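Hi R.,

Here's the chain you asked about this morning:
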Amino acid sequence: MAELDLQEATRRDDAYAQLNKLIDGLKEVNAFPPLVWLWTWDMVKDRLDMYTQTEDTREEFVTNSKFSEKDVFDMFWEDADKNAFSLEYGLEELDDAIFDWMLQRDIIVALDEDGWLDE
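And the predicted structure, written out as tokens:
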């Protein structure tokens, strides 16, 4: 085994402990398969953060303020069988599928050219 300096060995050991803790936590999730749920919900949350409108928003889309994060999760749960998100086809396809789902459910909405919400 390669000799690591103290900082890198500590980082490795911390990662080992954190990953094992996450695996144990995933076993407790009441959704199957839990890794897919974790991964896809993380991608949804990233989109929510990415499109939250601020003064400096320069995105073409914004999150719909009528939905809380919990509302979005409830829709995510309700649509799980229909969406059938999977890690099988790659991250780009999964990202596109999640984006399309969020648009269809009006979780994110398009801005017009002036930066106002389309009605």
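The radius of gyration is 19 Å.

Let me know if you need anything else.
M.
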